[in-house]
Amino acid sequence: MSILFASLIGFLTAAGVFLSLRAQTFPVVLGLTLLSYAVNLFLFGMGRLKTDAAAVLGNSASYTDPLPQALVLTAIVIAFAMTAFVIVLALKTRAELGNDHVDGEDDASANEQGGPSA
Amino acid sequence: MSLLNPIVLIVLLPFLSAPFVAWFGGKRRRAAAWAAAAVTLLCLALLGGVIAQFIAQGRLADAHVIGFHWMPSIGLDFAFRMDGLSLLFTGLILIIGLLVIVYARYYLALQDSAARFFASLMLFMGAMLGIVLSENLIQMVVFWELTSLSSFLLISFWQHRKEARYGARMALAVTGFGGLALLGGVLLLGHVAGSYNLSVILEAGDEIRQSPLYLPILLLILLGAFTKSAQFPFHFWLPNAMAAPTPVSAYLHSATMVKAGLFLLARLFPVLSGTNEWLLLVGGAGLITFLLGAYTALFKHDLKGLLAYSTLSHLGLITLLFGFGTPMAAVAAIFHLINHATFKASLFMVAGIVDHETGTRDMRRLGGLARKMPHTAALAIVAASAMAGVPLLNGFLSKEMFFSEAVDVAHEFGSNWALPLLVTLGGVMSVAYSIRFIHDTFFGTPSPDLPTEIHEPHRGMRIPIDVLVFVCLAVGLFPALLVGGLLTLAAGAVLNGPPPHFSLALWHGFNAPLMMSSIALAGGLLMYLSRRPLTRWHENSFGRLSARAVYDRLMALMQIAAEAVTHRFDQGRMQPMVLWTTGVALIAGLIGFLSYQAPLFGNDSLAAPFDALTATGMIIMMGTAVWVVNQHRQRLFALLLMSVLGLGVSLLFIRFSAPDLALTQLSVEVITVILMLLALRYLPQQTSSERDPKDRPRIRRDAVIAVLSGVGIALFTYAVMSRVYDTIAGYFLANSLTEGGGHNVVNVILVDFRGYDTFGEISVLALAALGVYALLQGMRLPPAVSSPIASGRIAHAQLLQTVTRLLLPMTLMFGIYILLRGHNAPGGGFIAGLIIASALMTQYLAQGIDSSERALSVPTHGAIALGLFLALATGMGSIVLGYPFLTSAFTHLHLPVVGDVEVASAMLFDLGVFFVVMGASVLMLTQMAKLTRVEPTAQTSGQVAK
Lengths: 118, 946
Prior knowledge:
The complex is a heterodimer of chains A (118) and B (946).
Chain A: H1 2-20, H2 25-45, H3 66-97, H4 107-110
Helix pairs in contact in A: 1-2, 2-3
Chain B: H1 6-27, H2 29-57, E1 64-71, E2 76-82, H3 84-107, H4 114-133, H5 137-155, H6 162-193, H7 198-201, H8 205-210, H9 214-228, H10 237-240, H11 246-255, H12 257-267, H13 269-272, H14 276-298, H15 303-324, H16 327-358, H17 369-372, H18 374-388, H19 394-409, H20 418-442, H21 459-477, H22 479-495, H23 512-529, H24 531-540, H25 547-569, H26 574-594, H27 612-631, H28 635-655, H29 659-680, H30 696-721, H31 729-740, H32 745-753, H33 755-776, H34 798-821, H35 829-847, H36 849-856, H37 860-880, E3 890-895, E4 899-904, H38 905-941
Antiparallel strand pairs in B: 1-2, 3-4
């Protein structure tokens, strides 16, 4: 099961990284969301995968690790706030510059300058 | 011991008074000066009281230390030290400070801001007192940097002048650089000595000199001292700092701040001196500065320029004396330090008066002023004679001691005659520029364009000079009586032992120093008489060299280099930055993997048992992730696929025992998808295609990076999960009920154990929501794509409208239920806030934004503020009761129907969380939804953004 779980995180990361390297804002927002799924699952996995062991006292003989869960819970909410903020930034770009390229360039020139000059 | 100790007060009072001085000055110009003077007098009175008390106790010569623990774990104490050396410097700073304040009161023009000037001056005075009274060396470095900063403010006082801004920046760059080096040196010194407190360090001299770190310590500390005291090769900032108002030059750049470096040499004299390195470095820099300053001063036409280079020369002389390293040389250094402060401060004040009355400081234009201002001229002649070392004045005595020491230690420098010859040459040049200062200004013929209506300045400007010149004369005539005791005291502190026997007398018989003094006086006169050919020769040779040009080129080079490096990584474009970040993370991960020796994976003994359903779910999710990438150009469709992933993540949380996470993820998912749908109306529906053949290498590169990142993360995750390791889960599980009063451990961690983190997180959430609100204000977007949601009301949704209306009270109730049970069962403020937000949102979607707002009118800003306040108040409540921030208290209550309930104060905190989350989510969603209504105005005005 751990292997599958790790591979899932790998898939989510790969998809997230690829999308966040795109030139337009919407795919980048999707990419960041995918990355936050991956990160949250990764953190969650650090507490190990246990079934029927929710960290509510009195229900079970053994409990899962509650700390990663607490961390992930706030991470989900923060990621949501960040997503909202980024998407509004994308709207702002669109309103101010008239296109949705991440660097505010129009589409024709955007694709030519994808990488660093180094 | 308290902070009200007079020694501590002497340092703190100037700082504390600065705002008041500025405030008074804002009301009445003159009040600033008198307030500053009053504070200085008060400090002097305190100092007098301290001295009287020490004398009464018979412990004047001892070091008195007052300390408070600040951060004992890193050796940082708030500690002060009063000994002979501190006493001398404190007196010097306060007395000359008082005179400068009086002088500046009459010097400043009406349009200058007296408030700003005197407030900065008080800051400087406090910082300077802090340096000389610090027992803890790190604390001293802090004050050291404060003098650099306040000196920056004072040099750039006339901000409209380009030279002032340039000089201030240069002084800050050079002394700031030195301060950083000094911090390094002090840290090393403390490391070797085992403490940062002087009482320990001064006793550890042998240990430090034998340490292998001695040379780095010496170099770093000397860098600090030499930059501050403008020793070669860092001398160039001082002449440029002369762009400051003259009182500042008199106070900072001759009497006190530039002496801070010398103070440091004196303070650490018992620890660092006595080695060949010390002799070479300190003596060498001092000798070069002494000669270079005196030589350059000869050819300066600006009065302040001449004084600046002469100050350099005298600072070099004192440094050279410290460099000799003998006890007698240290005594001579201290003596000359006092004398220089008196005569040079008065000469600067004279230069200020000349500038004030004639409008120029150029000696080529000045002349004959002795007839028009005889009093000032007389003062200037006495002070300049002291500077030249004429007998019966204080400068003569210390210069004699200097010559005598030079003869005594000459053999250390190789030959017996070279050093005496060089210092005599320096003496000759000092005499020559002193004569020039007097003769070219007060005698000779003035330039015809000089104003003829020149008269003596206001009495207030002369009184400080009267005092200083009187001191020059008095010390020159009765040295042993007036300064003998003080010198013994200070020398004892510098040497950290008994001071050597010295005699302060006018007449020591016919000896080598007297001969050197005579040669200097005669040679100086001769040199002045032949000044014309000398100047011509200078201007064709050394005059062309400029340290300033070297500095400018260095600064320009640094800027170019910094720009080049920055530009390589940051071109202001996001894609290359994301690429760099990911690339660096990849390489760092790779290095980590490659340098790891043990087997990467464990035997995965703790893995959850395999079940086909979960496995299938995960495989579907992997497929969906690939599909999203494949279909990301069709934005709406990609968004739907994303929600499949989000749902999958929630299911995984349910499967692996995380009900809280599942609830949170589910409600966040709902809100995120709605948010994105709302935004999508204003964005292109499709991402432009990248089918162009020239895009292909870039896509291939991104794909490789993405796959590598995915593989890396997957390997990493499995590497951790397949091993056995201990966690700190046990602590939380064991203490959740007893300490936090709750059964739901996740919630207890959030609102109790890690409550402070949660407080930070809800603040971030509130900020993000307010940021969204601010960004959307007045945003003008191109017309929305027509879609059912765009109208804000779904057509023919009677059924939906009816059902949501019925559902609303139930969802609200459910939300409150989730909130209340959160401490003991899955739920809590985060989840409840999100559930209620999505309930309200459903309402908005079904009924349309306007009618819902009228019907519900949720005060979102108020909810955020109330939530933050509740959370903060809960935390502060525990402080008030004497516990650390956010300590939880709980009790048991028996309620009818509900039964036995544990009520914890943390639940109040959770309520705050609930309000913030609810308010922030609703605020963001409604603001996005309201964009619809902005649209018509944008269209009618015809100013749709392109």
